[in-house]
Design brief:
Elements lengths: L2 H6 L16 H10 L4 E6 L3 H6 L11 E3 L5 H17 L7 E8 L1 H5 L2 H10 L4 E6 L39 H6 L5 E6 L3 H13 L4 E6 L3 H5 L5 H10 L6 E4 L2 E4 L10 H4 L14 H27 L1
Parallel strand pairs: 1-2, 1-3, 3-4, 4-6, 5-6
Antiparallel strand pairs: 5-7, 7-8
Length: about 300
Protein backbone atom coordinates (compact mmCIF):
# COMPACT_ATOMS: atom_id res chain seq x y z
CA UNK A 1 0.00 0.00 0.00
CA UNK A 2 1.30 3.47 -0.87
CA UNK A 3 0.55 6.55 1.22
CA UNK A 4 -2.08 7.83 -1.20
CA UNK A 5 -4.02 4.60 -0.72
CA UNK A 6 -3.50 4.82 3.01
CA UNK A 7 -4.97 8.30 3.41
CA UNK A 8 -7.99 7.30 1.34
CA UNK A 9 -8.79 4.36 3.62
CA UNK A 10 -11.64 4.63 6.10
CA UNK A 11 -10.30 5.90 9.40
CA UNK A 12 -10.13 3.42 12.27
CA UNK A 13 -9.05 6.05 14.77
CA UNK A 14 -10.65 9.47 14.59
CA UNK A 15 -10.11 13.02 15.86
CA UNK A 16 -11.77 14.46 18.92
CA UNK A 17 -9.75 12.58 21.53
CA UNK A 18 -8.16 14.34 24.49
CA UNK A 19 -4.45 13.84 23.85
CA UNK A 20 -2.18 16.84 24.38
CA UNK A 21 -1.31 19.01 21.39
CA UNK A 22 1.75 17.48 19.79
CA UNK A 23 1.27 14.06 21.40
CA UNK A 24 2.29 11.31 18.93
CA UNK A 25 -0.28 8.79 20.15
CA UNK A 26 -2.72 9.72 17.37
CA UNK A 27 0.02 9.45 14.75
CA UNK A 28 1.06 6.04 16.05
CA UNK A 29 -2.42 4.51 16.24
CA UNK A 30 -3.65 5.87 12.89
CA UNK A 31 -0.58 4.61 11.04
CA UNK A 32 -0.51 1.23 12.76
CA UNK A 33 -4.18 0.55 11.98
CA UNK A 34 -3.86 1.89 8.42
CA UNK A 35 -1.09 -0.61 7.70
CA UNK A 36 -3.43 -3.57 8.37
CA UNK A 37 -5.93 -4.82 5.79
CA UNK A 38 -7.85 -7.33 7.94
CA UNK A 39 -10.34 -6.68 10.73
CA UNK A 40 -8.64 -5.66 13.97
CA UNK A 41 -9.38 -6.07 17.68
CA UNK A 42 -7.47 -3.86 20.11
CA UNK A 43 -6.70 -4.18 23.83
CA UNK A 44 -5.25 -1.24 25.69
CA UNK A 45 -3.50 -1.01 29.03
CA UNK A 46 -4.28 1.84 31.40
CA UNK A 47 -2.23 4.85 30.38
CA UNK A 48 -2.22 8.05 28.34
CA UNK A 49 -3.62 6.30 25.27
CA UNK A 50 -6.53 4.80 27.18
CA UNK A 51 -7.55 7.86 29.18
CA UNK A 52 -7.34 10.32 26.29
CA UNK A 53 -9.10 8.25 23.63
CA UNK A 54 -12.01 6.79 25.61
CA UNK A 55 -13.35 9.58 27.80
CA UNK A 56 -16.77 8.19 28.76
CA UNK A 57 -19.17 8.19 26.97
CA UNK A 58 -17.01 8.92 23.88
CA UNK A 59 -14.37 6.97 22.00
CA UNK A 60 -11.94 7.71 19.16
CA UNK A 61 -11.71 4.02 18.22
CA UNK A 62 -13.64 2.66 15.24
CA UNK A 63 -12.58 -0.95 15.89
CA UNK A 64 -13.53 -3.37 18.70
CA UNK A 65 -11.58 -2.17 21.73
CA UNK A 66 -11.18 -3.39 25.30
CA UNK A 67 -9.54 -1.77 28.30
CA UNK A 68 -7.99 -3.95 30.96
CA UNK A 69 -5.94 -3.07 34.00
CA UNK A 70 -2.56 -1.34 33.93
CA UNK A 71 -0.62 -4.59 34.17
CA UNK A 72 -2.52 -7.13 32.09
CA UNK A 73 -3.24 -5.99 28.53
CA UNK A 74 -1.16 -8.94 27.29
CA UNK A 75 -3.15 -11.40 29.43
CA UNK A 76 -6.42 -9.93 28.21
CA UNK A 77 -5.34 -10.23 24.59
CA UNK A 78 -4.09 -13.77 25.18
CA UNK A 79 -7.61 -14.74 26.25
CA UNK A 80 -9.20 -12.97 23.27
CA UNK A 81 -6.85 -14.74 20.84
CA UNK A 82 -7.50 -18.13 22.46
CA UNK A 83 -11.27 -17.59 22.20
CA UNK A 84 -10.96 -16.53 18.56
CA UNK A 85 -8.96 -19.64 17.67
CA UNK A 86 -11.55 -21.92 19.29
CA UNK A 87 -14.46 -20.17 17.56
CA UNK A 88 -12.66 -20.30 14.21
CA UNK A 89 -11.95 -24.00 14.65
CA UNK A 90 -15.63 -24.61 15.36
CA UNK A 91 -16.61 -22.68 12.24
CA UNK A 92 -18.36 -19.89 14.14
CA UNK A 93 -15.92 -17.30 12.74
CA UNK A 94 -14.91 -17.58 9.09
CA UNK A 95 -12.70 -14.54 8.55
CA UNK A 96 -9.19 -13.48 9.54
CA UNK A 97 -8.95 -11.06 12.45
CA UNK A 98 -5.74 -9.44 13.68
CA UNK A 99 -5.08 -8.56 17.31
CA UNK A 100 -3.09 -5.68 18.77
CA UNK A 101 -2.36 -4.72 22.37
CA UNK A 102 -1.10 -1.23 23.15
CA UNK A 103 0.69 -0.17 26.32
CA UNK A 104 2.91 2.65 27.51
CA UNK A 105 6.33 2.00 28.96
CA UNK A 106 5.01 1.87 32.52
CA UNK A 107 2.54 -0.85 31.60
CA UNK A 108 5.08 -2.65 29.40
CA UNK A 109 8.64 -2.27 30.68
CA UNK A 110 7.58 -2.55 34.32
CA UNK A 111 4.27 -3.70 35.79
CA UNK A 112 3.02 -5.39 32.63
CA UNK A 113 6.22 -7.27 31.77
CA UNK A 114 5.28 -10.49 33.59
CA UNK A 115 2.01 -10.88 31.66
CA UNK A 116 3.70 -9.93 28.40
CA UNK A 117 6.57 -12.36 28.93
CA UNK A 118 4.06 -15.13 29.59
CA UNK A 119 2.15 -14.36 26.39
CA UNK A 120 5.40 -14.45 24.40
CA UNK A 121 6.47 -17.72 26.00
CA UNK A 122 3.09 -19.36 25.31
CA UNK A 123 3.18 -18.20 21.69
CA UNK A 124 -0.10 -16.26 21.44
CA UNK A 125 -0.36 -14.68 18.00
CA UNK A 126 -0.85 -10.96 18.52
CA UNK A 127 1.13 -7.78 18.05
CA UNK A 128 2.08 -5.87 21.18
CA UNK A 129 3.00 -2.23 20.66
CA UNK A 130 4.70 -0.14 23.32
CA UNK A 131 4.39 3.62 22.87
CA UNK A 132 7.49 4.53 24.81
CA UNK A 133 7.33 8.00 26.38
CA UNK A 134 9.97 7.07 28.95
CA UNK A 135 8.08 7.58 32.21
CA UNK A 136 4.68 7.14 33.88
CA UNK A 137 3.22 10.19 32.15
CA UNK A 138 -0.44 9.45 32.85
CA UNK A 139 0.12 9.69 36.61
CA UNK A 140 2.55 12.60 36.82
CA UNK A 141 5.92 11.82 35.23
CA UNK A 142 7.30 9.22 37.64
CA UNK A 143 10.44 7.41 36.46
CA UNK A 144 10.02 4.03 34.77
CA UNK A 145 12.34 1.32 33.54
CA UNK A 146 12.35 3.18 30.22
CA UNK A 147 13.43 6.54 31.65
CA UNK A 148 16.87 7.41 30.26
CA UNK A 149 19.96 8.25 32.25
CA UNK A 150 20.02 11.88 33.41
CA UNK A 151 16.34 12.64 32.80
CA UNK A 152 14.53 14.54 35.55
CA UNK A 153 11.21 13.07 36.76
CA UNK A 154 9.07 13.65 39.85
CA UNK A 155 10.55 10.54 41.49
CA UNK A 156 14.08 11.09 40.16
CA UNK A 157 14.50 14.84 40.67
CA UNK A 158 17.60 16.95 40.32
CA UNK A 159 19.20 17.80 43.65
CA UNK A 160 22.39 17.83 45.73
CA UNK A 161 22.63 14.03 45.88
CA UNK A 162 21.53 12.98 42.40
CA UNK A 163 21.07 14.71 39.04
CA UNK A 164 17.92 13.06 37.69
CA UNK A 165 17.77 9.33 37.03
CA UNK A 166 21.17 7.76 37.60
CA UNK A 167 20.50 4.39 35.94
CA UNK A 168 20.43 3.52 32.23
CA UNK A 169 17.07 2.50 30.81
CA UNK A 170 16.03 -1.11 30.41
CA UNK A 171 16.52 -2.52 26.90
CA UNK A 172 13.04 -3.97 26.43
CA UNK A 173 13.48 -4.63 22.71
CA UNK A 174 16.39 -6.94 23.46
CA UNK A 175 14.37 -8.59 26.24
CA UNK A 176 11.64 -9.29 23.68
CA UNK A 177 14.18 -10.71 21.23
CA UNK A 178 15.49 -13.01 23.97
CA UNK A 179 12.06 -14.71 24.02
CA UNK A 180 12.77 -16.00 20.49
CA UNK A 181 9.47 -14.73 19.12
CA UNK A 182 9.12 -14.38 15.33
CA UNK A 183 9.30 -10.60 15.03
CA UNK A 184 10.66 -7.75 17.17
CA UNK A 185 11.38 -4.17 16.12
CA UNK A 186 12.05 -0.59 17.16
CA UNK A 187 10.39 2.18 15.15
CA UNK A 188 9.79 5.92 15.08
CA UNK A 189 7.15 8.27 13.71
CA UNK A 190 10.06 10.09 12.04
CA UNK A 191 10.06 7.25 9.49
CA UNK A 192 6.48 6.23 8.71
CA UNK A 193 7.25 3.96 5.71
CA UNK A 194 9.54 1.95 8.01
CA UNK A 195 6.80 1.79 10.67
CA UNK A 196 4.25 0.59 8.10
CA UNK A 197 6.58 -2.14 6.85
CA UNK A 198 7.23 -3.32 10.39
CA UNK A 199 3.54 -3.48 11.28
CA UNK A 200 2.87 -5.55 8.15
CA UNK A 201 5.69 -7.96 9.02
CA UNK A 202 4.55 -8.19 12.64
CA UNK A 203 0.93 -8.92 11.72
CA UNK A 204 2.00 -11.56 9.19
CA UNK A 205 4.21 -13.34 11.73
CA UNK A 206 3.11 -16.81 12.81
CA UNK A 207 3.27 -16.09 16.52
CA UNK A 208 3.84 -13.19 18.91
CA UNK A 209 5.33 -9.94 17.66
CA UNK A 210 6.49 -6.75 19.35
CA UNK A 211 7.19 -3.20 18.16
CA UNK A 212 8.67 -0.56 20.45
CA UNK A 213 7.77 2.92 19.15
CA UNK A 214 9.50 6.08 20.36
CA UNK A 215 6.79 8.41 21.70
CA UNK A 216 7.90 11.89 22.89
CA UNK A 217 5.83 13.56 25.62
CA UNK A 218 5.30 17.30 25.11
CA UNK A 219 4.18 18.03 28.66
CA UNK A 220 6.76 16.16 30.73
CA UNK A 221 9.75 16.19 28.41
CA UNK A 222 9.30 19.93 28.09
CA UNK A 223 9.28 21.06 24.46
CA UNK A 224 7.01 22.94 22.05
CA UNK A 225 4.17 20.81 20.56
CA UNK A 226 5.31 21.30 16.96
CA UNK A 227 8.69 19.67 17.63
CA UNK A 228 7.49 16.09 18.22
CA UNK A 229 8.62 14.71 14.86
CA UNK A 230 11.85 16.73 14.97
CA UNK A 231 12.75 15.25 18.37
CA UNK A 232 11.84 11.77 17.13
CA UNK A 233 14.22 12.27 14.24
CA UNK A 234 17.00 13.54 16.51
CA UNK A 235 16.64 10.43 18.67
CA UNK A 236 17.39 8.34 15.57
CA UNK A 237 20.17 10.56 14.18
CA UNK A 238 22.03 10.52 17.52
CA UNK A 239 21.52 6.73 17.73
CA UNK A 240 19.72 7.27 21.04
CA UNK A 241 16.86 5.26 19.49
CA UNK A 242 18.20 2.83 16.86
CA UNK A 243 15.78 1.75 14.15
CA UNK A 244 16.14 -2.00 13.73
CA UNK A 245 14.30 -5.32 13.58
CA UNK A 246 14.86 -8.91 14.66
CA UNK A 247 13.12 -11.26 12.24
CA UNK A 248 13.25 -14.93 13.23
CA UNK A 249 16.36 -14.22 15.27
CA UNK A 250 18.15 -12.26 12.53
CA UNK A 251 19.10 -8.66 13.30
CA UNK A 252 18.82 -5.92 10.70
CA UNK A 253 19.52 -2.23 11.32
CA UNK A 254 17.03 -0.38 9.11
CA UNK A 255 18.75 2.99 9.25
CA UNK A 256 22.37 3.90 9.94
CA UNK A 257 23.05 7.64 10.25
CA UNK A 258 25.81 8.59 7.81
CA UNK A 259 27.06 11.25 10.23
CA UNK A 260 25.69 10.51 13.71
CA UNK A 261 24.92 13.62 15.73
CA UNK A 262 26.30 14.01 19.28
CA UNK A 263 23.74 13.24 21.98
CA UNK A 264 23.75 16.90 23.08
CA UNK A 265 21.70 17.71 19.97
CA UNK A 266 18.90 15.54 21.34
CA UNK A 267 19.27 16.50 25.00
CA UNK A 268 19.14 20.26 24.48
CA UNK A 269 15.67 20.10 22.90
CA UNK A 270 14.02 19.04 26.19
CA UNK A 271 13.56 20.59 29.61
CA UNK A 272 13.99 17.24 31.39
CA UNK A 273 17.72 17.25 30.58
CA UNK A 274 18.42 20.89 31.48
CA UNK A 275 20.43 20.06 34.61
CA UNK A 276 22.41 17.40 32.81
CA UNK A 277 23.67 20.07 30.42
CA UNK A 278 25.08 22.28 33.18
CA UNK A 279 28.84 22.62 33.04
CA UNK A 280 29.36 20.70 36.28
CA UNK A 281 27.35 17.77 34.90
CA UNK A 282 29.02 17.43 31.51
CA UNK A 283 30.53 14.17 32.75
CA UNK A 284 27.01 12.75 32.64
CA UNK A 285 26.65 13.68 28.98
CA UNK A 286 29.95 11.92 28.25
CA UNK A 287 28.80 8.86 30.17
CA UNK A 288 25.55 8.71 28.20
CA UNK A 289 27.38 9.21 24.89
CA UNK A 290 29.76 6.37 25.72
CA UNK A 291 26.83 4.12 26.59
CA UNK A 292 25.08 4.93 23.30
CA UNK A 293 28.28 4.19 21.37
CA UNK A 294 28.72 0.85 23.15
CA UNK A 295 25.10 -0.20 22.54
CA UNK A 296 25.39 0.73 18.87
CA UNK A 297 28.54 -1.39 18.50
CA UNK A 298 26.73 -4.33 20.10
CA UNK A 299 23.89 -3.89 17.63
CA UNK A 300 26.32 -3.81 14.68
CA UNK A 301 27.91 -7.04 15.90
CA UNK A 302 24.52 -8.74 16.21
CA UNK A 303 23.70 -7.68 12.67
CA UNK A 304 27.03 -8.99 11.41
CA UNK A 305 26.53 -12.33 13.16
CA UNK A 306 23.07 -12.55 11.59
CA UNK A 307 24.57 -12.03 8.12
CA UNK A 308 27.20 -14.70 8.72
CA UNK A 309 24.59 -17.16 9.95
Amino acid sequence: MNFKEMVEKKERFVSGHGACAGCPIGIIVRNVLAAIEDDVVVACATGCMEVTTTIYPYTAWKVPWIHSAFENAASTMSGIVAAYEVLKEKGKINRDIRFIAFGGDGGTYDIGLQALSGAWERGHRFLYICYDNEAYMNTGNQRSGATPYGAETTTAPYGRVEAGKMEFRKNLTQIAAAHNIPYVAQASIANLPDLHNKVKKAIASDGPSFINIFSPCVLNWGYAPHKTVEISKLAVETRFWPIYEVENGKYRINYKPAKPLPIEEFLKTQRRFRYMLKEENKWMVEKLQNHINEEWEKLLKLEEISKEG
